[in-house]
């Protein structure tokens, strides 16, 4: 079977690193991985994890999703510009009260999470159309389906990603190109550390005392508990991405964490939108004990599911 070339963005850490390494170490050697990062000075973690696959099934290239020239240069450097699979993973988070965030910072989030994807797709789609084959795998989030308190701009950027892909997917089908949105819940990566560090240092003087209190005393502890109870390892997400890529008929949407599915299902269950809003409000503000007990139960289920897979 011919090897397929996969380009992954954002491989300096987290999910991108795990995906690049998992594909490079594929037992059936089905992939040549172009693992990209915007700053190749940060390559050490990937090199260590890649081990002996480095220079064989995995190459490291520079690619900044915010710079069209760097994307073009990277794709031009591939033999025949051939790319079978794109994993658009690079992204950044943002949390906090909207009135404390500058429009410039919000634009940076969109420039990376949304326009980064747009730039990549513009570069690779025409070649895939000509070849009538290809698979574009896009790292979205459960927050691309359901917004969450104090994640306003991040969720909006992932909603934009979902809207773009949902629209493009139909056209892609005409050219035999597959598209898949991967929608993780919380994943234990640098992402979480970076947004919490920003949150701890955030100047909350731009908002009222009550909003600042809700953010610090309710939202941050709530979110910390969700991550520690439901958080997946990036390797689990990478394993699922491998399965999606090798599938003959990959789904358009794939949620990586089954424990999170009931939260997103509420959105589709009630077209008025009241059900998920009321549920989130109650969970966060009114039923602290019930919330803690359910997280304990979910942590138990998560452990059992992980064990049963080993
Ligand atoms: N962790 C979660 O809970 C979670 C949940 C759902 C979805 N996601 C999504 O999963 C994806 C990966 O996140 P992660 O959790 O693995 O976080 P991470 O460890 O912080 O990785 C993010 C990666 O994106 C890179 N990146 C940022 N801006 C870039 C740019 N302009 N050009 C190229 N690369 C850039 C980062 O590079 P630097 O090292 O140079 O910053 C890093 O390699 C993101 O799209 C995120 O939205 C994460």
Automatic annotation (TrEMBL):
Entry EC no(s): 1.1.1.300
Keywords assigned by UniProt, alphabetized: Lipid metabolism, Membrane, NADP, Oxidoreductase, Sensory transduction
Protein name: Retinol dehydrogenase
GO-annotated biological processes: estrogen biosynthetic process
GO MF: all-trans-retinol dehydrogenase (NADP+) activity; estradiol 17-beta-dehydrogenase [NAD(P)+] activity
Any matching Pfam family: adh_short
SUPFAM superfamilies: NAD(P)-binding Rossmann-fold domains
Cited function: Retinol dehydrogenase with a clear preference for NADP. Converts all-trans-retinal to all-trans-retinol. May play a role in the regeneration of visual pigment at high light intensity.
Family of the protein in this entry: Belongs to the short-chain dehydrogenases/reductases (SDR) family.
UniProt main location, coarse: membrane
Gene: zmp:0000001048
Catalysed reaction, written as an equation: all-trans-retinol + NADP(+) = all-trans-retinal + NADPH + H(+)
Protein localization: Membrane
């Amino acid at each position: 079977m011919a090897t397929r070339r996969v380009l992954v963005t954002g491989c300096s850490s987290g999910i991108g690193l795990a995906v690049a390494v998992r594909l490079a170490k594929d037992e059936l050697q089905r992939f040549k991985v172009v693992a990209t990062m915007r700053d190749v000075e940060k390559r050490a973690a990937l090199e260590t994890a890649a081990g002996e696959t480095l220079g064989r099934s995995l190459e490291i290239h520079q690619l900044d999703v915010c710079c069209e020239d760097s994307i073009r240069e990277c794709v031009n450097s591939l033999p025949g510009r051939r790319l079978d699979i794109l994993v658009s993973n690079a992204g950044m988070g943002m949390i906090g009260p909207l009135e404390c965030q500058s429009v410039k910072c919000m634009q940076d989030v969109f420039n990376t999470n949304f326009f980064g994807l747009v730039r990549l797709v513009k570069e690779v789609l025409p070649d895939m159309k000509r070849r009538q084959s290809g698979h574009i795998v896009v790292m979205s989030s459960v927050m691309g389906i359901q917004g969450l308190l104090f994640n306003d701009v991040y969720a909006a950027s992932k909603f934009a990603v979902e809207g773009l892909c949902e629209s493009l997917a139909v056209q892609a089908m005409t050219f035999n190109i597959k598209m898949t949105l991967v929608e993780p819940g919380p994943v234990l990566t640098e992402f979480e550390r970076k947004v919490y560090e920003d949150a701890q240092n955030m100047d909350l003087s731009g908002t009222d005392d009550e909003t600042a209190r809700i953010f610090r005393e309710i939202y941050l502890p709530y979110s910390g508990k969700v991550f520690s109870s439901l958080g997946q390892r990036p390797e689990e997400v990478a394993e699922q991405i491998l399965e999606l890529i090798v599938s003959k008929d990959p789904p358009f949407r794939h949620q990586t964490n089954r424990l999170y599915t009931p939260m997103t299902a509420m959105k589709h269950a009630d077209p008025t939108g009241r059900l998920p809003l009321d549920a989130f409000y109650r969970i966060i503000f009114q039923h602290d004990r019930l919330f803690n007990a359910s997280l304990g139960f979910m942590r138990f289920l998560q452990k059992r599911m992980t064990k049963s897979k080993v």
